[in-house]
Structure formats: structure tokens, C-alpha cells
Design goal:
With 224 residues, this protein is of the alpha+beta class. It is 30% helix and 16% strand. The protein has eight helices and seven strands, in the order ββαβββββααααααα. The strands form two sheets. It has a five-stranded mixed sheet. A two-stranded antiparallel ribbon has the order 6-7. The chain is elongated.
């Protein structure tokens, strides 16, 4: 016997709507289906104007971040519940429905110089040795797929704030802990107001790849 699910979805088109609204849809609920399965069903069977982002369907592209029943998550990974409310990631400007404006985030990231900065590689012997501790810190930070779930959960992160946000600090950590990198990234941490982090742990609680952004921020603060 088919079980009926009910979903309440945030709707807004910034080019035409004055204010957002929520619309309710029914869907055939099945154990094991994801939130992305629900969104695709609604788009294909109920309203083909519903807009949301996704690509890989395997947690790697980071495009399908939403807030489901109040919790930031990746729609392709999070299991659906029989009753759902789905909203765009918090603290972001909405373009349409569940699609957020990436321009503020991209502008911040562009200033982080997220590449290996070296002035002189003469005499470098390949492959270069990286000790196990440094490698582990780089490896953990490199699991981030920039889904921005941590930023949505962070109480300090706002579009008009100078606080870099958990994802930005994780991206910086990839190079901060890399002994081959010659750029002094402390000024980027300071500009990002890393000292403002209140270590509430909300970012780590919602990270779908267990990067533990709060832990990364703590290690950055200890090593500055």
C-alpha cells in the first residue's frame, strides 16, 4: 500500500514576487528515498516550474544544499521524512525557490588565493615529503565540497558580515597546513575575523562529509 507523503516547499522568484510563500504537495513516500527524490517528483509530476540545483546525486558536487525540517543538509544524501518542509539555505539571497545567489560567496573565495603559493621551486625533489600530521589536516579540509551547509548553520555568517564563515576557513586550512605553501595566510584569517568564532559547533553538526569545521577553526587559531 502506497504511503502518502506531504511536503511544504519555499517558493520565491526575485524577479516577479514581492514576498516568498510556501506551497504544499503530496508525494508517494518510500523508505530510502532522499529529499532530492522528493524534489524531482514534485517537479516532474506536480509543478515543472519548481527550481533547485543538483548534479552528481552522490554528495560530491555540493550543489543541492537545502534546509529540510530546519536542518541544513545535502538533498541527495539526506533521507526524506513523510512530512517535510524544504527551504533554501539560510542567510543566502534567493534567486528562485531553492536556488541561492552564489555571488557573495564566490567573491569572498576569490580573495583567499586558494592555490599553492611558492616563489622558488629550484632544487625541490619530487615527490615532496609531507609529514603525517600535516597531511591528515590537509586531507580532512580537502573533503569539503563547498555545499555551504555549515555557513547556513553558523550564527555569525551573514552576507553583509566580514566574518568569513566556516567553509571559507576550511578552504584556507588546505593551504595553511600545507608546509609547501609560502604565503603568510595569517592576514587572511585575521581579515576573515576568525577570532569571532564562538565555537558553538553547529557547523560541524551539519557537515555531510564530517570535515568538522569548528575543529578546523580551533586548530587554525592554535597555529596562528
Amino acid at each position: 500500500m502506497m504511503v502518502q507523503g506531504k511536503v511544504n516547499i519555499f517558493r520565491f522568484d526575485r524577479e516577479h514576487d514581492i514576498k516568498p510563500r510556501y506551497e504544499k504537495f503530496d508525494f508517494p513516500f518510500e523508505s530510502g528515498m532522499t529529499i532530492l527524490d522528493v524534489l524531482i517528483y514534485v517537479r516532474d509530476h506536480c509543478d515543472n516550474t519548481l527550481s533547485f540545483s543538483y548534479c552528481c546525486r552522490n554528495r560530491h558536487c555540493g550543489l543541492c544544499g537545502v534546509v529540510a525540517n530546519g536542518v541544513p543538509c545535502l538533498a541527495c544524501h539526506e533521507a526524506a521524512e513523510q512530512e517535510l518542509t524544504i527551504e533554501p539555505l539560510d542567510k543566502q539571497t534567493v534567486v528562485r525557490d531553492l536556488i541561492i545567489d552564489q555571488s557573495v560567496y564566490n567573491s569572498r573565495v576569490e580573495k583567499l588565493r586558494l592555490f599553492l603559493c611558492r616563489e622558488n621551486i629550484d632544487g625541490v625533489v619530487l615527490p615532496e615529503y609531507i609529514n603525517v600530521e600535516d597531511f591528515e589536516q590537509i586531507k580532512v579540509a580537502s573533503r569539503c565540497v563547498e555545499c555551504k551547509c555549515c555557513d547556513a548553520a553558523c550564527p555569525l555568517n551573514r552576507a553583509d558580515s566580514h566574518f568569513l564563515g566556516p567553509s571559507g576557513f576550511v578552504l584556507l586550512a588546505r593551504h595553511f597546513f600545507d608546509p609547501r605553501d609560502e604565503l603568510d595566510r595569517n592576514y587572511l584569517l585575521k581579515n576573515g575575523q576568525i577570532e569571532q568564532c564562538v565555537h558553538c559547533g553547529r557547523c560541524s553538526n551539519v557537515c555531510p562529509h564530517n570535515v568538522d569545521p569548528e575543529g578546523v577553526i580551533s586548530r587554525l587559531q592554535e597555529c596562528r
